[in-house]
């Protein structure tokens, strides 16, 4: 919304939320999320044509176009639990809009929703109001960490609407908003259902690429092929392309897992078992990759990590974000905690509270389920301190700063043999080996211990 406001001085954008604390934070210099460049954009337009407020009803009355941008998490109970998306917040928004609106509105689904959600939204709006509503789908394709750039120069903007004169007019209105800064040929218009489904499919395809390369990384480790060389070799075929071929400890984030599970569920409910199974395999492969990493660590460290200190580098699901949702780190750490390892975590953006919340939400790790979890995990503000006396370092997030450390100093302070498990393939492995580290990386030729 800040980017819309920044590029469209004649449009007034009001972001509303029930949560006063969130709105206060958006109105302060301490924004509630970390995203490079976000503060600058917000600061440039806040109070001019961008406002943050809890005055939901007044804002609905005033608006011509309403973006519904609420979260649609995976359902945790009831029908489709663990797979289906929970769209109750979208429905609640529609009910509020219908109740409050004093004129016709364009309602835009910005949230990621199951295909044909617009139908339900439309019915709710229609049944509770006499005004005319057009529902559009306008999914968001930005990635965290590069959000501002993705929004300023999007590969495409997708707008779906009813193929009726009123629907096409609503599409044209939204196109005119984006046309303030996005070249017209990058604004794609489709029917409602294609737009809704495209978001799920885009994320499923991206996640599939990560799972595909990760599956091959396991084979590389058995054969001494090198996954980075394979990525380069296959990625230079322009039909395949070189993006999203970085092997890792597993993808995370708020979208991939949730959206594929949603796709899997939709296919299943439509009787498309083979299609559903096909996409589910992407998720299973990601689970396998995370498990495989933790298992490799334990096996390499002489089949036991009990009471061994392990430095965890990074907890966010990727670099340049403080977001921890579905981060691979949680799953790897959970497996290490089961082995009673002592974990020293360092992440430049993630707080201890946030980390424990993620543990609780994602895998139900609490002081109740894992006694002493609060003492087994130490959060550190200094990466060097995290490594003191540690038997191993596990790189979970590809933060650039990890590449700049003085690894001789790190090595000197660690227990020996000193292991590094690079879950992101970002460290200079040859140099580290020269220092004396035993280095294990994803899809790389494995060190062979020959001498006894
Ligand atoms: C994703 C989509 O990219 C974006 O279009 C959509 O709007 C939201 O979901 P995001 O979750 O922010 O964005 O991050 P993304 O950069 O896609 O990475 C997702 C996960 O895949 C991260 O954990 C990342 O580390 C991992 N990844 C990505 C890899 O492991 N290897 C890769 O080559 C690329």
Write the layout of secondary structure elements.
Blueprint: H1 2-7, E1 13-16, H2 20-26, H3 38-45, E2 50-53, H4 56-62, E3 65-68, H5 88-100, E4 105-109, H6 117-128, E5 133-137, H7 147-152, E6 157-161, H8 165-178, E7 187-191, H9 192-223, H10 227-235, H11 256-269, H12 273-300, E8 309-313, H13 328-338, E9 342-346, H14 352-363, H15 373-376, E10 377-379, H16 383-387, E11 392-395, H17 407-413, E12 419-422, H18 429-435, E13 438-441
Parallel strand pairs: 1-2, 3-4, 4-5, 6-7, 8-9, 8-11, 9-10, 11-12, 12-13
Helix pairs in contact: 5-6, 9-11, 9-12, 11-12, 12-13
The site of uridine-5'-diphosphate-xylopyranose has 19 residues, from helix 9.
Description of the structure:
It contains 18 helices and 13 strands. The longest helix is centred in the middle third of the chain and has 32 residues, at 192-223. The strands form 4 sheets. The protein has a 6-stranded parallel beta sheet, sandwiched between helices. A 3-stranded parallel beta sheet has the order 3-4-5, with helices on both faces. Strands 1-2 form a two-stranded parallel ribbon. By secondary structure, it is α/β, with parallel strands linked by helices. The radius of gyration is 24 Å and the shape is globular. Helix 9 (192-223) runs parallel beside helix 12 and helix 11 (256-269) runs antiparallel to helix 12 (273-300). The model has no long low-confidence stretch (mean pLDDT 96). The structure holds uridine-5'-diphosphate-xylopyranose (UDX). Uridine-5'-diphosphate-xylopyranose is lined by residues 140-144, 203, 206, 210, 244-246, 248, 251-253, 255-256, 317-318.
């Amino acid at each position: 919304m800040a980017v819309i406001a920044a590029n469209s001085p004649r449009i007034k954008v009001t972001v509303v939320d029930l949560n006063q604390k969130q709105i206060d934070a958006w109105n302060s210099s301490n924004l509630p999320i970390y995203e490079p460049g976000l503060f600058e954009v917000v600061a440039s337009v806040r109070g001019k044509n961008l406002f943050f407020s809890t005055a939901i009803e007044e804002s609905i009355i005033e608006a011509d176009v309403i973006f519904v941008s609420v979260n649609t998490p995976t359902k945790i109970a009831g029908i489709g639990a663990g797979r289906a998306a929970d769209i109750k917040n979208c429905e609640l928004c529609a009910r509020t809009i219908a109740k409050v609106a004093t004129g016709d509105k364009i309602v835009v689904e910005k949230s990621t929703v199951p295909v044909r959600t617009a139908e339900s939204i439309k019915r709710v709006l229609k049944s509770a109001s006499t005004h005319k509503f057009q529902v559009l789908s306008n999914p968001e394709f930005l990635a965290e960490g590069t959000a501002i750039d993705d929004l300023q120069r999007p590969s495409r903007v997708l707008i779906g609407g009813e193929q009726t004169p009123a629907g096409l007019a609503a599409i044209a209105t939204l196109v005119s908003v984006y046309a303030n800064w996005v070249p017209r040929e990058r604004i794609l218009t489709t029917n409602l259902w294609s737009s809704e489904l495209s978001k799920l499919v885009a994320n499923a395809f991206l996640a599939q690429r990560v799972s595909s390369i990760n599956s091959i990384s396991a084979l590389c480790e058995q054969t001494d092929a090198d996954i980075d060389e394979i990525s380069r070799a296959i990625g230079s075929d322009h039909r395949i392309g070189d993006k999203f071929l970085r092997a890792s400890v597993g993808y995370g984030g708020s979208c991939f897992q949730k959206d594929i599970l949603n796709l899997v569920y939709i296919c299943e409910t439509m009787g498309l078992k083979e299609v559903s199974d096909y996409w589910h395999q992407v998720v299973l492969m990601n689970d396998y990759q995370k498990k495989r990493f933790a298992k490799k660590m334990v096996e390499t460290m002489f089949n036991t990590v009990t009471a061994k200190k392990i430095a965890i580098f990074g907890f966010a699901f990727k670099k340049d974000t403080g977001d921890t949702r579905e981060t691979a780190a949680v799953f790897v750490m959970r497996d290490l905690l089961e082995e009673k390892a002592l974990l020293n975590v360092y992440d430049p953006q993630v707080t201890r509270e946030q980390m424990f919340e993620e543990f609780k939400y994602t895998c139900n790790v609490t002081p109740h389920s894992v006694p002493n979890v609060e003492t087994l995990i130490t959060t550190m503000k200094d990466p060097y301190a995290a490594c003191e006396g540690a038997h191993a370092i596990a790189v979970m997030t590809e933060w650039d700063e990890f590449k700049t450390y003085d690894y001789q100093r790190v090595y000197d302070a660690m227990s020996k043999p000193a292991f590094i498990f690079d879950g992101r393939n970002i460290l200079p492995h040859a140099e580290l080996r020269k220092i004396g580290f035993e280095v294990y990386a994803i899809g790389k030729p494995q060190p062979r211990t020959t001498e006894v």
